[in-house]
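Collaborator request log, item 7. Partner lab (contact: R.S.) asked for a structural prediction of ATP-dependent RNA helicase to inform their binding assays.
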Amino acid sequence: MTKVQEATLPVLLQGQDVLAKSKTGTGKTMAFLLPTVEKIAKANVAKDAISALILSPTRELATQIDVEAKKLTTFHTISTECFVGGTSIELDQKKLKKSIDILVATPGRLQDHLRNNHGNVIEKLKHLQVLILDEADRLLDMGFRRDIEAILDYLPAQRQTILFSATLPESLDAIQRVALKKDHIFIDTVGDQEQTNTHVNQTALICQLQDQIGALYSTLKAHIHANPNQHKIIVFFPTARAAGFMASVFEAAKFPVLEMHSRKSQAYRTRTADTFRQQTKVIMFSSDVSARGVDYPDVSLVVQMGMTDRDQYIHRLGRTGRAGKDGKGMIILSDFEKHFLDELSDMPITHQEFECDAKKNAVDKVLKTIEKNADLKAKATQAYQSFLGFYVSNLKRLNLSKQQLVALGEVYAKATGLQSSPPLQKRTINMMGLENLGLKIQKPQHRR
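Returned to partner:
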């Protein structure tokens, strides 16, 4: 039994409301599923009632909880369903015609059903016994506060409510007040000092922007060489476009790369997650859809490309070193981003300067073909645009001017294999606030 399970199970089994501060990878999913199943199994459940509702911030995490719940109820007559965006809403409606005991959902999709009262879902939720908000801080970060408040209005006051959260931001206070009973129990399994997996070996690699791809290549090759039969690596990128472009480049260079980001369909992401979960000797290039909650066993290395924020750094790092196992974390920063490390000054991070190898590698050879490969060139152009979009929103943190960002964009474009920065739509440039700074404007295509 894990620390969070030992701390929360006795209280939850008594039926009390709980706010639990818990890191990812500590067995918290089982901590709330076990008492929920126990309660439903013993209760006098009303006909066609949804007895437990679990709200999750992402499709991937919701799907994972659904899988665990189904395993746990194998020998019970308890049905579990999962409703998330990006899947058939008509299929959800068919499921609502049948009995559902445990419903796992993302807030947006559940709101769709409630607004239209599909399958008489409003009536079914009137008999709810347990409400669980998993990754509550993330639910709020992703803008689900209004959806959650609207959903709460449909639920009975007499219920047990459980909130699990890795952090306790001020924005959580309002949800606590309306969701939890006043006499709820607060359980902290993290503490003030233990904000991340301290046993994870962490390194920051500083390089020139033009050497960032080479630094990633060297990091991956070194880890694979050191762990030839047991490597499982996640590489996080700041944008979906960057993740997609880099995945295509490294795949062309014969790396065993899987691609996971928000621009892929839900079905594709589910298949990719399952593949990564089951395999070893594999690498996943991802945006932050994989940063929290989702459990991938035996991840040996997490690489973070470019700056992020402190909380996201911690949650990404939490993909490795899970369940007490060893793991390694590497953040690769361009020199203009290195002050981000000031935000992580209390973390045991070893700083390292990247030494560029003049010898051309397999990725360099792929980058040389970018201008001749229409697909890769289009993806490089999209990655360049997303580079500007991401960093223009972080100018103050980086103490950069817009003119300096445009110059960095030129360096980034050439690093991706483009001859120079590509033209962008005038509307896109204006939306980023980068007009009149020398960016190339795409010529409008006249219809015949």
